[in-house]
Amino acid sequence: MSAWSSNVKFENGQLMVAGKSAIDLAREFGTPSFILDEADFKSRAIAFRDAMNSAFPSALVYYASKAFTCKEVLRWIKELGMGVDVATGGELAVALAVDFPVDKIQVHGDNKSISEIETAVQVGVGNIVIDSLWEIPRIAAAAKKFGKKQAVMARLNPGVEAHTIEAIATAHEDVKFGLSIASGMAWEAIKEIHKYPELDFRGVHAHIGSQIFTMDGHQLAINHLLDFMARYRDEFGRELPDVDFGGGFGILYTSEDSPLSIDDAISQIKEVVVKGCAARNLKMPHVAIEPGRAIVGPSMCTLYEVGTTKRIHLEEGTRNYISVDGGMSDNIRPALYGAQYEAQGELDMSTLVPQVSLPGGVQQAVPVTQVVGQPIQHAFIGSCGASMYDDIAAAAEVLRGRRVADYLNAGCIAVCVHPEGCEAHLAFARQLHIETHILPGDDEAQALVDEKTAAMRGGSSHGTVRARRARRRGSTSAGARPREGRRWRGRRSGRRWRSSWSRMTRRTAWTTLTGTGRRRWRSVPTRNAAISIPRSIPTKAC
What we know:
eight-stranded parallel beta barrel, 23 strands, TIM Barrel, 32% helix, 16 helices, 3 domains, Lyase, Ornithine Decarboxylase, Chain A, domain 1, alpha/beta
Protein backbone atom coordinates (compact mmCIF):
# COMPACT_ATOMS: atom_id res chain seq x y z
CA MET A 1 0.00 0.00 0.00
CA SER A 2 1.31 3.43 -0.92
CA ALA A 3 0.59 6.97 0.22
CA TRP A 4 0.55 7.99 -3.43
CA SER A 5 -1.90 7.58 -6.24
CA SER A 6 -1.69 4.23 -8.00
CA ASN A 7 -0.58 6.14 -11.12
CA VAL A 8 2.37 7.87 -9.46
CA LYS A 9 5.68 6.45 -10.63
CA PHE A 10 9.33 7.31 -10.06
CA GLU A 11 11.13 6.86 -13.36
CA ASN A 12 14.76 7.79 -13.94
CA GLY A 13 14.73 10.08 -10.94
CA GLN A 14 11.55 11.84 -12.03
CA LEU A 15 8.19 11.98 -10.26
CA MET A 16 5.53 11.05 -12.80
CA VAL A 17 1.82 11.61 -12.12
CA ALA A 18 -0.38 9.77 -14.59
CA GLY A 19 2.44 9.87 -17.13
CA LYS A 20 3.29 13.56 -16.66
CA SER A 21 6.46 14.86 -15.06
CA ALA A 22 6.06 16.88 -11.87
CA ILE A 23 8.47 19.48 -13.25
CA ASP A 24 6.39 19.86 -16.42
CA LEU A 25 3.25 20.22 -14.31
CA ALA A 26 4.93 22.92 -12.22
CA ARG A 27 5.97 24.81 -15.35
CA GLU A 28 2.48 24.59 -16.82
CA PHE A 29 0.36 25.37 -13.76
CA GLY A 30 2.78 26.99 -11.34
CA THR A 31 3.20 26.22 -7.67
CA PRO A 32 1.67 25.53 -5.27
CA SER A 33 -0.79 23.33 -7.13
CA PHE A 34 -3.13 20.51 -6.23
CA ILE A 35 -2.59 17.59 -8.60
CA LEU A 36 -5.55 15.18 -8.74
CA ASP A 37 -5.40 11.82 -10.50
CA GLU A 38 -8.84 11.31 -12.06
CA ALA A 39 -8.43 7.61 -12.78
CA ASP A 40 -7.28 6.84 -9.24
CA PHE A 41 -10.07 8.95 -7.71
CA LYS A 42 -12.75 7.15 -9.69
CA SER A 43 -11.32 3.71 -8.91
CA ARG A 44 -11.50 4.38 -5.15
CA ALA A 45 -15.01 5.80 -5.38
CA ILE A 46 -16.15 2.78 -7.38
CA ALA A 47 -14.55 0.45 -4.83
CA PHE A 48 -16.65 2.00 -2.03
CA ARG A 49 -19.80 1.98 -4.15
CA ASP A 50 -19.45 -1.64 -5.23
CA ALA A 51 -18.47 -2.89 -1.76
CA MET A 52 -21.56 -1.24 -0.22
CA ASN A 53 -23.91 -2.48 -2.92
CA SER A 54 -22.55 -5.98 -2.40
CA ALA A 55 -22.92 -5.83 1.39
CA PHE A 56 -26.39 -4.29 1.67
CA PRO A 57 -29.54 -4.64 -0.44
CA SER A 58 -30.11 -0.89 -0.52
CA ALA A 59 -27.10 1.29 0.11
CA LEU A 60 -25.88 4.75 -0.79
CA VAL A 61 -22.35 6.14 -0.67
CA TYR A 62 -22.17 9.90 -0.14
CA TYR A 63 -18.92 11.59 -1.16
CA ALA A 64 -18.00 13.93 1.71
CA SER A 65 -17.27 17.02 -0.35
CA LYS A 66 -15.56 18.82 2.54
CA ALA A 67 -12.52 16.62 1.83
CA PHE A 68 -12.13 18.35 -1.54
CA THR A 69 -14.68 19.68 -3.95
CA CYS A 70 -14.86 21.36 -7.32
CA LYS A 71 -17.25 21.12 -10.25
CA GLU A 72 -15.29 18.44 -12.07
CA VAL A 73 -15.03 16.20 -9.00
CA LEU A 74 -18.79 16.35 -8.44
CA ARG A 75 -19.36 15.58 -12.12
CA TRP A 76 -17.37 12.36 -11.58
CA ILE A 77 -19.45 11.50 -8.49
CA LYS A 78 -22.62 12.20 -10.43
CA GLU A 79 -21.52 9.92 -13.29
CA LEU A 80 -20.85 7.10 -10.81
CA GLY A 81 -24.38 7.30 -9.41
CA MET A 82 -23.23 8.23 -5.92
CA GLY A 83 -24.52 10.89 -3.53
CA VAL A 84 -22.77 13.96 -2.15
CA ASP A 85 -22.63 15.21 1.42
CA VAL A 86 -22.27 19.01 1.69
CA ALA A 87 -21.40 20.90 4.87
CA THR A 88 -21.59 24.52 3.71
CA GLY A 89 -23.62 26.72 1.44
CA GLY A 90 -20.62 26.94 -0.88
CA GLU A 91 -20.42 23.17 -1.28
CA LEU A 92 -24.16 23.07 -1.97
CA ALA A 93 -23.72 25.79 -4.61
CA VAL A 94 -21.03 23.72 -6.37
CA ALA A 95 -23.32 20.67 -6.42
CA LEU A 96 -26.19 22.69 -7.84
CA ALA A 97 -23.89 24.25 -10.45
CA VAL A 98 -23.29 20.83 -12.03
CA ASP A 99 -26.97 19.83 -11.83
CA PHE A 100 -26.29 17.18 -9.24
CA PRO A 101 -29.45 15.11 -8.53
CA VAL A 102 -30.97 16.90 -5.55
CA ASP A 103 -32.44 13.70 -4.13
CA LYS A 104 -28.85 12.45 -3.63
CA ILE A 105 -27.66 15.60 -1.86
CA GLN A 106 -27.33 15.41 1.92
CA VAL A 107 -26.90 18.67 3.85
CA HIS A 108 -24.71 18.56 6.92
CA GLY A 109 -23.04 20.99 9.31
CA ASP A 110 -23.27 21.98 12.97
CA ASN A 111 -24.17 25.64 12.29
CA LYS A 112 -26.41 25.87 9.22
CA SER A 113 -27.53 29.40 8.53
CA ILE A 114 -31.17 30.19 7.84
CA SER A 115 -30.32 31.08 4.23
CA GLU A 116 -28.51 27.74 3.75
CA ILE A 117 -31.47 25.85 5.21
CA GLU A 118 -33.94 27.71 3.01
CA THR A 119 -31.86 27.07 -0.13
CA ALA A 120 -31.64 23.37 0.67
CA VAL A 121 -35.37 23.06 1.30
CA GLN A 122 -36.28 25.14 -1.74
CA VAL A 123 -34.25 23.00 -4.19
CA GLY A 124 -35.57 19.82 -2.55
CA VAL A 125 -32.42 18.12 -1.20
CA GLY A 126 -32.83 14.48 -0.30
CA ASN A 127 -31.96 14.88 3.33
CA ILE A 128 -30.95 17.41 5.98
CA VAL A 129 -29.04 16.09 8.98
CA ILE A 130 -30.15 17.86 12.19
CA ASP A 131 -27.21 18.68 14.46
CA SER A 132 -28.87 20.77 17.20
CA LEU A 133 -32.26 21.55 18.74
CA TRP A 134 -32.10 25.05 17.19
CA GLU A 135 -32.27 23.67 13.67
CA ILE A 136 -35.55 21.82 14.09
CA PRO A 137 -37.95 24.82 14.03
CA ARG A 138 -35.82 26.57 11.39
CA ILE A 139 -36.05 23.64 8.97
CA ALA A 140 -39.77 23.30 9.70
CA ALA A 141 -40.31 27.02 9.01
CA ALA A 142 -38.46 26.79 5.68
CA ALA A 143 -40.50 23.72 4.67
CA LYS A 144 -43.72 25.52 5.53
CA LYS A 145 -42.55 28.61 3.60
CA PHE A 146 -42.00 26.64 0.39
CA GLY A 147 -44.89 24.27 0.90
CA LYS A 148 -42.75 21.13 1.22
CA LYS A 149 -42.30 18.19 3.55
CA GLN A 150 -38.55 17.95 4.22
CA ALA A 151 -36.81 14.64 4.97
CA VAL A 152 -34.49 14.90 7.98
CA MET A 153 -32.16 12.71 10.00
CA ALA A 154 -30.74 13.26 13.46
CA ARG A 155 -27.01 13.20 14.04
CA LEU A 156 -26.46 11.36 17.29
CA ASN A 157 -23.43 11.43 19.53
CA PRO A 158 -22.96 7.81 20.66
CA GLY A 159 -20.26 8.69 23.20
CA VAL A 160 -17.58 6.59 21.48
CA GLU A 161 -13.87 7.28 21.87
CA ALA A 162 -12.42 6.77 18.41
CA HIS A 163 -8.76 5.72 18.25
CA THR A 164 -7.51 8.73 16.35
CA ILE A 165 -6.07 12.22 16.87
CA GLU A 166 -7.93 13.97 19.69
CA ALA A 167 -8.71 17.03 17.58
CA ILE A 168 -10.57 14.96 14.96
CA ALA A 169 -12.42 12.60 17.33
CA THR A 170 -16.03 13.77 17.08
CA ALA A 171 -18.18 11.29 19.02
CA HIS A 172 -17.14 11.56 22.67
CA GLU A 173 -19.26 13.63 25.03
CA ASP A 174 -17.24 16.85 25.04
CA VAL A 175 -17.66 17.84 21.37
CA LYS A 176 -19.83 20.32 19.53
CA PHE A 177 -21.15 17.77 17.03
CA GLY A 178 -24.36 15.80 17.25
CA LEU A 179 -27.05 15.14 19.86
CA SER A 180 -25.85 13.25 22.93
CA ILE A 181 -27.57 9.94 23.57
CA ALA A 182 -26.29 9.67 27.14
CA SER A 183 -27.55 13.11 28.23
CA GLY A 184 -31.01 12.62 26.75
CA MET A 185 -30.60 15.40 24.20
CA ALA A 186 -31.01 12.97 21.30
CA TRP A 187 -34.34 11.67 22.53
CA GLU A 188 -35.53 15.21 23.25
CA ALA A 189 -34.72 16.12 19.63
CA ILE A 190 -36.74 13.17 18.32
CA LYS A 191 -39.80 14.24 20.29
CA GLU A 192 -39.35 17.82 19.05
CA ILE A 193 -39.15 16.69 15.40
CA HIS A 194 -42.49 14.92 15.76
CA LYS A 195 -44.18 18.21 16.64
CA TYR A 196 -43.77 19.49 13.08
CA PRO A 197 -45.79 17.89 10.29
CA GLU A 198 -43.50 19.58 7.75
CA LEU A 199 -40.65 17.25 8.78
CA ASP A 200 -40.27 13.63 7.67
CA PHE A 201 -38.01 11.88 10.18
CA ARG A 202 -36.10 9.22 8.24
CA GLY A 203 -33.40 7.90 10.54
CA VAL A 204 -30.24 8.47 12.55
CA HIS A 205 -26.66 9.33 11.76
CA ALA A 206 -23.29 9.21 13.51
CA HIS A 207 -19.74 10.24 12.62
CA ILE A 208 -17.16 9.29 15.25
CA GLY A 209 -14.05 10.94 13.81
CA SER A 210 -11.48 10.89 11.03
CA GLN A 211 -8.34 8.98 10.12
CA ILE A 212 -9.46 5.81 11.94
CA PHE A 213 -7.47 2.62 11.33
CA THR A 214 -9.59 0.06 13.18
CA MET A 215 -13.31 -0.63 13.13
CA ASP A 216 -13.68 -1.00 16.89
CA GLY A 217 -15.12 2.50 17.29
CA HIS A 218 -17.44 2.08 14.31
CA GLN A 219 -18.74 -1.21 15.68
CA LEU A 220 -19.58 0.35 19.06
CA ALA A 221 -21.25 3.32 17.38
CA ILE A 222 -23.33 1.02 15.14
CA ASN A 223 -24.62 -0.90 18.14
CA HIS A 224 -25.55 2.35 19.93
CA LEU A 225 -27.47 3.54 16.85
CA LEU A 226 -29.28 0.20 16.52
CA ASP A 227 -30.23 0.39 20.21
CA PHE A 228 -31.66 3.85 19.59
CA MET A 229 -33.59 2.66 16.53
CA ALA A 230 -35.04 -0.24 18.52
CA ARG A 231 -36.16 2.20 21.24
CA TYR A 232 -37.74 4.43 18.63
CA ARG A 233 -39.69 1.47 17.24
CA ASP A 234 -40.92 0.53 20.65
CA GLU A 235 -41.95 4.11 21.45
CA PHE A 236 -43.51 5.23 18.14
CA GLY A 237 -44.57 1.92 16.64
CA ARG A 238 -42.62 2.16 13.41
CA GLU A 239 -39.06 1.43 12.30
CA LEU A 240 -36.75 4.05 10.95
CA PRO A 241 -35.84 3.24 7.33
CA ASP A 242 -32.41 4.93 7.11
CA VAL A 243 -29.13 4.86 9.01
CA ASP A 244 -25.87 6.62 8.15
CA PHE A 245 -22.61 5.48 9.77
CA GLY A 246 -20.55 8.45 8.57
CA GLY A 247 -16.97 8.18 7.33
CA GLY A 248 -13.57 8.58 8.92
CA PHE A 249 -11.84 5.69 7.16
CA GLY A 250 -8.10 6.22 7.55
CA ILE A 251 -5.58 6.49 4.74
CA LEU A 252 -1.83 6.09 4.54
CA TYR A 253 0.12 9.35 4.88
CA THR A 254 3.44 7.80 5.94
CA SER A 255 4.85 4.29 6.14
CA GLU A 256 3.83 4.16 9.84
CA ASP A 257 0.11 4.25 8.97
CA SER A 258 -1.78 0.98 8.48
CA PRO A 259 -5.30 1.58 7.16
CA LEU A 260 -7.82 -1.16 6.42
CA SER A 261 -8.70 -2.01 2.86
CA ILE A 262 -12.10 -0.85 1.62
CA ASP A 263 -13.43 -4.39 1.39
CA ASP A 264 -12.31 -5.23 4.94
CA ALA A 265 -13.89 -2.09 6.38
CA ILE A 266 -17.26 -2.64 4.69
CA SER A 267 -17.22 -6.34 5.53
CA GLN A 268 -16.82 -5.55 9.24
CA ILE A 269 -19.64 -3.00 9.09
CA LYS A 270 -21.92 -5.55 7.45
CA GLU A 271 -21.17 -8.19 10.07
CA VAL A 272 -22.09 -5.86 12.95
CA VAL A 273 -25.24 -4.54 11.26
CA VAL A 274 -26.56 -7.99 10.34
CA LYS A 275 -25.96 -9.40 13.83
CA GLY A 276 -27.25 -6.24 15.52
CA CYS A 277 -30.49 -6.13 13.55
CA ALA A 278 -31.12 -9.81 14.16
CA ALA A 279 -30.50 -9.43 17.89
CA ARG A 280 -32.98 -6.50 18.13
CA ASN A 281 -35.51 -7.89 15.68
CA LEU A 282 -35.03 -4.93 13.34
CA LYS A 283 -35.51 -4.95 9.60
CA MET A 284 -32.38 -4.25 7.55
CA PRO A 285 -32.35 -0.46 7.04
CA HIS A 286 -31.04 1.52 4.10
CA VAL A 287 -27.36 1.92 5.00
CA ALA A 288 -25.25 4.91 3.98
CA ILE A 289 -21.63 5.94 4.56
CA GLU A 290 -19.72 9.16 3.83
CA PRO A 291 -16.10 8.58 2.74
CA GLY A 292 -14.24 11.68 1.65
CA ARG A 293 -10.58 11.59 2.59
CA ALA A 294 -10.48 7.85 1.82
CA ILE A 295 -11.42 8.60 -1.80
CA VAL A 296 -9.59 11.79 -2.65
CA GLY A 297 -6.65 11.71 -0.21
CA PRO A 298 -4.41 9.15 -1.95
CA SER A 299 -5.47 10.48 -5.37
CA MET A 300 -4.20 14.01 -4.77
CA CYS A 301 -0.85 15.53 -3.99
CA THR A 302 0.34 19.10 -3.55
CA LEU A 303 3.14 20.37 -5.75
CA TYR A 304 5.50 22.88 -4.14
CA GLU A 305 8.71 24.58 -5.15
CA VAL A 306 11.61 24.66 -2.72
CA GLY A 307 12.85 28.17 -2.09
CA THR A 308 15.54 27.78 0.56
CA THR A 309 17.03 25.15 2.82
CA LYS A 310 18.64 25.58 6.20
CA ARG A 311 20.61 23.21 8.41
CA ILE A 312 20.40 23.81 12.15
CA HIS A 313 22.93 22.14 14.45
CA LEU A 314 21.47 21.16 17.82
CA GLU A 315 22.81 19.26 20.81
CA GLU A 316 20.66 16.24 19.93
CA GLY A 317 21.66 16.34 16.26
CA THR A 318 21.08 18.21 13.04
CA ARG A 319 17.68 19.39 11.80
CA ASN A 320 17.10 20.28 8.16
CA TYR A 321 14.50 22.89 7.20
CA ILE A 322 13.09 23.08 3.69
CA SER A 323 11.04 26.17 2.82
CA VAL A 324 8.37 25.82 0.15
CA ASP A 325 6.01 28.27 -1.53
CA GLY A 326 2.93 27.04 0.35
CA GLY A 327 1.41 27.59 3.74
CA MET A 328 -1.59 27.07 6.00
CA SER A 329 -3.91 28.41 3.30
CA ASP A 330 -3.38 25.20 1.30
CA ASN A 331 -2.47 22.80 4.11
CA ILE A 332 -3.46 23.67 7.64
CA ARG A 333 -3.33 20.12 9.03
CA PRO A 334 0.32 20.18 10.22
CA ALA A 335 -0.39 23.27 12.33
CA LEU A 336 -3.71 21.96 13.71
CA TYR A 337 -3.01 18.27 14.22
CA GLY A 338 0.76 17.87 13.88
CA ALA A 339 0.03 15.92 10.68
CA GLN A 340 2.92 14.28 8.86
CA TYR A 341 3.24 13.50 5.19
CA GLU A 342 5.39 11.48 2.88
CA ALA A 343 7.33 13.84 0.61
CA GLN A 344 9.18 13.20 -2.63
CA GLY A 345 11.70 15.65 -4.05
CA GLU A 346 12.69 16.13 -7.66
CA LEU A 347 15.48 18.33 -8.97
CA ASP A 348 15.29 20.33 -12.17
CA MET A 349 18.87 19.78 -13.30
CA SER A 350 18.62 22.55 -15.89
CA THR A 351 18.48 25.11 -13.08
CA LEU A 352 21.46 23.77 -11.11
CA VAL A 353 24.90 25.37 -11.19
CA PRO A 354 27.84 22.92 -10.99
CA GLN A 355 29.89 23.11 -7.79
CA VAL A 356 33.64 22.96 -7.33
CA SER A 357 35.68 22.64 -4.15
CA LEU A 358 38.34 25.23 -3.46
CA PRO A 359 41.71 24.37 -1.82
CA GLY A 360 41.37 23.56 1.85
CA GLY A 361 38.76 20.84 1.78
CA VAL A 362 35.70 19.50 0.05
CA GLN A 363 33.50 21.61 2.30
CA GLN A 364 34.78 24.73 0.51
CA ALA A 365 32.33 24.24 -2.33
CA VAL A 366 31.29 27.20 -4.50
CA PRO A 367 29.44 27.57 -7.81
CA VAL A 368 31.82 27.01 -10.70
CA THR A 369 30.83 30.44 -12.04
CA GLN A 370 32.82 32.02 -9.20
CA VAL A 371 36.11 30.51 -10.33
CA VAL A 372 35.80 30.62 -14.12
CA GLY A 373 39.15 31.59 -15.66
CA GLN A 374 41.34 30.48 -12.78
CA PRO A 375 44.11 28.10 -13.90
CA ILE A 376 44.16 24.56 -12.51
CA GLN A 377 47.66 23.53 -11.47
CA HIS A 378 46.83 20.17 -9.96
CA ALA A 379 43.86 17.78 -10.28
CA PHE A 380 42.99 14.74 -8.19
CA ILE A 381 40.40 12.06 -8.90
CA GLY A 382 39.66 9.73 -6.03
CA SER A 383 36.89 8.15 -4.08
CA CYS A 384 35.78 7.25 -0.62
CA GLY A 385 34.34 4.00 0.61
CA ALA A 386 30.88 4.64 -0.86
CA SER A 387 32.07 4.91 -4.44
CA MET A 388 31.83 2.31 -7.14
CA TYR A 389 34.09 1.23 -9.94
CA ASP A 390 31.70 2.83 -12.42
CA ASP A 391 32.34 6.22 -10.83
CA ILE A 392 36.07 5.97 -11.47
CA ALA A 393 35.50 4.65 -14.97
CA ALA A 394 33.25 7.58 -15.83
CA ALA A 395 35.84 10.07 -14.58
CA ALA A 396 38.58 8.30 -16.54
CA GLU A 397 36.55 8.62 -19.74
CA VAL A 398 36.43 12.37 -19.21
CA LEU A 399 40.21 12.49 -18.97
CA ARG A 400 40.92 10.03 -21.80
CA GLY A 401 43.30 11.59 -24.33
CA ARG A 402 44.36 14.41 -22.00
CA ARG A 403 47.78 14.70 -20.38
CA VAL A 404 49.63 16.79 -17.83
CA ALA A 405 51.20 19.93 -19.24
CA ASP A 406 54.90 19.48 -20.03
CA TYR A 407 55.94 22.51 -18.01
CA LEU A 408 54.71 20.78 -14.85
CA ASN A 409 57.29 18.03 -15.36
CA ALA A 410 55.02 15.58 -13.53
CA GLY A 411 54.16 11.92 -13.76
CA CYS A 412 51.37 9.83 -12.26
CA ILE A 413 51.21 6.68 -10.19
CA ALA A 414 48.08 4.83 -9.07
CA VAL A 415 48.58 3.61 -5.52
CA CYS A 416 46.65 0.92 -3.65
CA VAL A 417 47.65 0.29 -0.05
CA HIS A 418 45.51 -2.79 0.42
CA PRO A 419 45.31 -4.69 -2.88
CA GLU A 420 42.36 -6.85 -1.80
CA GLY A 421 39.30 -5.62 -3.63
CA CYS A 422 40.99 -2.98 -5.76
CA GLU A 423 42.42 -5.15 -8.54
CA ALA A 424 39.82 -3.80 -10.97
CA HIS A 425 40.80 -0.21 -10.20
CA LEU A 426 44.46 -0.93 -10.76
CA ALA A 427 43.74 -2.79 -13.99
CA PHE A 428 41.77 0.14 -15.28
CA ALA A 429 44.60 2.52 -14.40
CA ARG A 430 47.04 0.35 -16.37
CA GLN A 431 44.70 0.52 -19.38
CA LEU A 432 45.09 4.27 -19.27
CA HIS A 433 48.89 3.92 -19.15
CA ILE A 434 49.06 5.04 -15.53
CA GLU A 435 51.83 3.48 -13.53
CA THR A 436 50.54 1.43 -10.62
CA HIS A 437 52.11 0.63 -7.31
CA ILE A 438 51.04 -1.42 -4.27
CA LEU A 439 52.08 -0.34 -0.80
CA PRO A 440 52.29 -3.30 1.58
CA GLY A 441 51.92 -3.01 5.30
CA ASP A 442 49.32 -2.90 8.03
CA ASP A 443 49.32 0.86 8.50
CA GLU A 444 48.21 2.69 5.39
CA ALA A 445 49.34 6.12 6.50
CA GLN A 446 52.70 4.99 7.68
CA ALA A 447 53.34 2.90 4.59
CA LEU A 448 52.70 5.95 2.47
CA VAL A 449 54.97 8.07 4.65
CA ASP A 450 57.72 5.51 4.20
CA GLU A 451 57.16 5.58 0.46
CA LYS A 452 57.58 9.30 0.29
CA THR A 453 60.52 9.25 2.67
CA ALA A 454 62.42 6.98 0.34
CA ALA A 455 61.48 9.08 -2.65
CA MET A 456 62.55 12.37 -1.10
CA ARG A 457 65.87 10.97 0.21
CA GLY A 458 66.61 9.09 -2.98
CA GLY A 459 67.09 5.99 -0.89
CA SER A 460 65.64 3.45 -3.29
CA SER A 461 68.12 1.33 -5.26
CA HIS A 462 67.96 0.44 -8.97
CA GLY A 463 65.40 3.16 -9.58
CA THR A 464 62.65 1.30 -7.75
CA VAL A 465 60.40 3.06 -5.27
CA ARG A 466 59.86 0.68 -2.37
CA ALA A 467 57.56 0.81 0.62
CA ARG A 468 58.37 -0.92 3.85
CA ARG A 469 56.68 -1.38 7.16
CA ALA A 470 57.30 1.33 9.69
CA ARG A 471 60.06 0.60 12.18
CA ARG A 472 61.55 2.54 14.97
CA ARG A 473 64.39 0.97 16.92
CA GLY A 474 63.13 -2.50 16.02
CA SER A 475 59.49 -1.72 16.75
CA THR A 476 56.87 -2.92 14.29
CA SER A 477 53.88 -1.36 15.98
CA ALA A 478 51.39 0.49 13.82
CA GLY A 479 51.97 4.21 13.63
CA ALA A 480 55.71 4.06 14.47
CA ARG A 481 57.91 6.46 12.57
CA PRO A 482 60.64 5.30 10.22
CA ARG A 483 64.11 4.92 11.66
CA GLU A 484 65.81 8.27 11.71
CA GLY A 485 69.59 8.74 11.52
CA ARG A 486 71.23 11.54 13.44
CA ARG A 487 72.61 13.09 10.28
CA TRP A 488 69.20 13.21 8.54
CA ARG A 489 67.40 14.46 11.60
CA GLY A 490 69.77 17.40 11.89
CA ARG A 491 69.19 18.69 8.39
CA ARG A 492 66.85 21.60 7.96
CA SER A 493 64.94 19.88 5.24
CA GLY A 494 64.65 16.82 7.42
CA ARG A 495 63.09 18.85 10.19
CA ARG A 496 60.68 20.44 7.70
CA TRP A 497 59.43 17.12 6.37
CA ARG A 498 59.29 15.60 9.82
CA SER A 499 57.07 18.46 10.92
CA SER A 500 54.70 17.81 8.06
CA TRP A 501 54.54 14.11 8.61
CA SER A 502 53.73 14.49 12.29
CA ARG A 503 50.39 16.02 11.34
CA MET A 504 49.38 13.02 9.24
CA THR A 505 46.84 10.65 10.78
CA ARG A 506 46.44 6.89 10.57
CA ARG A 507 43.56 7.34 8.10
CA THR A 508 45.72 9.23 5.65
CA ALA A 509 45.99 7.09 2.53
CA TRP A 510 47.33 9.42 -0.12
CA THR A 511 49.48 12.49 -0.60
CA THR A 512 50.38 14.70 -3.52
CA LEU A 513 53.64 16.25 -4.36
CA THR A 514 53.67 18.85 -7.10
CA GLY A 515 56.53 18.99 -9.58
CA THR A 516 56.74 22.74 -9.93
CA GLY A 517 59.77 23.14 -7.74
CA ARG A 518 57.71 24.01 -4.71
CA ARG A 519 57.08 20.84 -2.80
CA ARG A 520 53.94 20.62 -0.70
CA TRP A 521 52.18 17.76 1.05
CA ARG A 522 48.46 17.30 1.44
CA SER A 523 46.35 14.49 2.91
CA VAL A 524 42.72 13.31 2.82
CA PRO A 525 41.05 10.23 4.34
CA THR A 526 40.66 7.67 1.55
CA ARG A 527 42.07 4.29 0.56
CA ASN A 528 42.77 4.25 -3.14
CA ALA A 529 44.01 7.23 -5.07
CA ALA A 530 46.57 8.60 -7.51
CA ILE A 531 49.87 10.20 -6.54
CA SER A 532 51.50 12.79 -8.76
CA ILE A 533 55.27 13.03 -8.26
CA PRO A 534 58.16 14.71 -10.07
CA ARG A 535 59.71 12.85 -12.98
CA SER A 536 63.07 13.28 -11.32
CA ILE A 537 62.05 10.71 -8.74
CA PRO A 538 62.58 7.25 -10.20
CA THR A 539 59.44 5.14 -10.45
CA LYS A 540 58.69 1.64 -11.58
CA ALA A 541 55.38 -0.19 -12.00
CA CYS A 542 54.97 -3.23 -9.79
